[in-house]
Amino acid sequence: MAEETINVNSLSFFTTKTFNIDANQSGVIRYRLSLAGIAGEQNLKNNVKEFFVEVLDARQKILLLANAPHPDLSALKSIISENKNYDTEIAYINDFKGNISKYNLVILHNLPSENADITALVTQLNKNNIPKIFIVGLQTSLPKFNTAQDVLRINGTIKNTEEIQAEVNPASPCLPLLTN
Fold it and tell me: What is the reported pTM?
């Protein structure tokens, strides 16, 4: 409920007020606007207005689909869920029985792995135009990863990993120029 006092200072008074009301549920919601009468007002029936607003659940559904439990999953979910427009769910590939087409984004953590072939899943994501993000880790099967997507090729094996850090190439044509 929102309330505000408005002082009427002329006979032809008009004002517009904006109220932001949090939608706690989706669906059609009825609102009632009522104004208190002023001294000497004879017709109070026109001081009440009812209206309906349809609230849609427009949150984006994000699936964190993982090969196995990992501390990064909780961290990712926590960060993503800070935005109230994102509904984030964690699932594990061996237990996932959900409908992949209900998600707006799928983050694949340590997938594909030696034990989890995600070829059919990636085909379904591509068919439904659902964006995907691969997070490559020690459990990722690099040959299967190279087959699952055609953007990046990683040569070598997970056994010969090194700590690396990316460096921005200022001459890259993909980077926007920043000017003051």
Answer: 0.63
